[in-house]
Q: What sequence folds into this?
């Protein structure tokens, strides 16, 4: 039985939530619309409709002669996909060994990996920088990818290991009868059955890599390697007095994440909350 | 079927040595990557922290605990650590209650909840750098809200300096943090609320409890595990704050918005004091660890 709430209370809740929603979206809308304004209009008329509509701001941003936007975008994609693929492979391998293979020292190895949950990247960043320099990985995609993969591994292994634990033993026995190796069993049976957890692992890695700024800031000196967050900072520094151009740049820089969010919203939110809330 | 085999699985059955070899084959690369890029640099940070070193020549200038003494004697570090704790407390008392309030409203019997949830969560998926630059524009004295909203509608705030003054910069940045992160906590709470069985609420309604009683005495106690988790995320995240501050003026003016990580960055990578910077990193780690442990201890006790 549901006791109906007072109409006024319901209306008030909607009003309140709608005000919050508008306030949340407003800065984003002002920026996107502002990118279409002339600098003069931007200064005087924050809320107005662009007049004249300055397509040239956006066109300048996507013009390879005037901005590095597409190079930044491409670099972010390269770093992200490599990080995600390596993360999926390494966390599946380690999760499988720690879940399905019996060997001496298994608990010690697992604890050793869990130790990594204690260390935020900031703690290791200075020695890491020296190490990357020694390994000749500065100004190299792998200089960002490998530490990103390494720092994500402990949590990823925790997820894959506990999911692999649930895979019924009967499947393992029939795999053995079919002369399947442990690796074949992982690739052909365990991984396809683990799509939900591998999706979570991939999505978390994608979001983290896409937004990462701290590590690329140290590793990439060469402008040709800059990722999108670095591109935003360097473009803003370059056009400090031309805000309408900067607004066009950040609007375009937001688009990939927003499209991705609209498509995969359910998975992103489930991935972030699922592992955490449901024990 | 043999129960013993059932529990441990086929790949656990064969010869011991063969299993160890198989396990090693699976674990070698993950262990190597993890050890080289996480464990080794962390251990090195401890070692570096005891030297005075510019990162170039050999480390010869052993100073023991001197770096640590210097850190706590530096007034700028005290501002930085103070800001980190301010972020923790303000999040606890402003951001999380706001997220909880919204979650309580839209989690149940709220048409269009999916749309509202999507909007509130949107800022979280933007990178901190984009959020920071976006708000630098909103706060900009010539282009942002100052010229329009404040001057015309709220005249007494017309000269509010936002990022321009040491007294307001920290709170202006903190406001952006609320904007960016309340959605994350809200979706955590919504997920937690959806795990609470409807029957409990319906039974309480039959007993005639009102909205406040319902939320305060029935829902909140059941939501406790989720709330504890969200507080934990918030605390650990607060100590790592860097990108958003860096994008909104690098901790300036006069170090007023400095955090421990921006402080570390400045010493390590701008002044090339790698020993001192490593000592700051160790301090950040120890503080996070202690606060995390104390927090776990408090939440694990039965009284709460």
A:
């Amino acid at each position: 039985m549901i006791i109906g709430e007072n109409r006024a209370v319901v209306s008030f809740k909607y009003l309140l939530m709608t005000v919050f929603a508008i306030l949340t979206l407003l800065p984003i809308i002002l920026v996107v619309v502002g990118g279409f304004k002339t600098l003069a209009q931007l200064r005087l008329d924050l809320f107005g409709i662009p007049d004249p509509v300055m397509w040239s701001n956006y066109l300048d941003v996507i013009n390879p002669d005037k901005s590095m936007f597409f190079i930044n975008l491409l670099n972010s994609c390269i770093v992200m996909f490599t990080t995600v693929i390596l993360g999926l492979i390494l966390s599946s391998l380690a999760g499988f060994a720690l879940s399905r293979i019996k060997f001496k020292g298994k608990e010690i190895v697992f604890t050793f990996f869990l130790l990594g949950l204690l260390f935020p990247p900031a703690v290791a960043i200075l020695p890491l920088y020296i190490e990357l320099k020694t390994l000749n990985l500065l100004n190299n995609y792998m200089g960002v990818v490998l530490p990103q993969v390494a720092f994500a591994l402990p949590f990823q292994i925790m997820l894959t290991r506990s999911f692999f634990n649930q895979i019924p033993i009967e499947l393992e026995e029939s795999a053995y009868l079919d002369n399947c190796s442990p690796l074949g069993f992982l690739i052909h049976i365990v991984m396809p059955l683990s799509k939900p957890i591998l999706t979570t692992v991939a999505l978390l890695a994608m979001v983290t890599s896409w937004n990462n700024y701290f590590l690329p800031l140290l590793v990439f000196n060469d402008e040709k390697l800059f990722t999108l967050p670095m591109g935003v900072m360097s473009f803003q520094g370059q056009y400090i007095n031309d805000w309408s151009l900067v607004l066009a740049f950040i609007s375009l820089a937001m688009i990939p994440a927003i499209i991705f969010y609209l498509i995969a919203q359910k998975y992103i939110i489930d991935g972030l909350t699922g592992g955490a809330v449901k024990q | 079927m043999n129960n013993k085999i059932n529990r441990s699985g086929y790949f656990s059955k064969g010869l011991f040595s063969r299993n160890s070899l198989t396990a090693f084959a699976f674990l070698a690369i993950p262990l190597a990557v993890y050890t080289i890029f996480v464990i080794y640099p962390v251990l090195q940070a401890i070692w570096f922290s005891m030297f005075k070193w510019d990162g170039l020549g050999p480390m010869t200038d052993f100073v023991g605990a001197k770096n640590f003494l210097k850190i706590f004697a530096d007034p700028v570090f005290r501002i930085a650590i103070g800001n980190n704790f301010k972020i923790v407390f303000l999040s606890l008392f402003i951001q999380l209650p706001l997220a909880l309030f919204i979650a309580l409203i839209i989690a149940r019997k709220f048409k269009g909840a999916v749309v509202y949830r999507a909007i509130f969560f949107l800022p979280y998926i933007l990178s901190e750098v984009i959020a920071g630059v976006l708000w630098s524009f909103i706060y900009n004295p010539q282009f942002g809200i100052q010229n329009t909203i404040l001057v015309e509608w709220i005249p007494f705030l017309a000269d509010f300096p936002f990022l321009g003054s040491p007294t307001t910069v920290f709170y202006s940045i903190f406001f952006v943090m609320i904007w960016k992160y309340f959605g994350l906590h809200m979706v955590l709470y919504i997920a937690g609320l959806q795990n609470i069985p409807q029957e409990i609420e319906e039974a309480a309604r039959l007993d005639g409890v009102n909205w406040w009683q319902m939320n305060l005495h029935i829902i909140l106690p059941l939501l406790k595990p989720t709330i504890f988790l969200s507080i934990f995320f918030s605390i650990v995240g607060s100590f790592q704050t860097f990108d958003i501050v860096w994008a909104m003026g690098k901790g300036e003016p006069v170090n007023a918005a400095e955090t421990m990580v921006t402080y570390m960055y400045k010493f390590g990578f701008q002044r090339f004091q790698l020993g001192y910077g490593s000592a700051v990193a160790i301090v950040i780690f120890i503080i996070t660890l202690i606060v995390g442990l104390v927090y776990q201890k408090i939440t694990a006790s039965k009284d709460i």
Summary: The radius of gyration of chain A is 24 Å. The CA atoms of residues 240 and 246 of chain A lie 8 Å apart. Residues 69-237 of chain A form a domain with the MetI-like fold fold (CATH 1.10.3720.10).
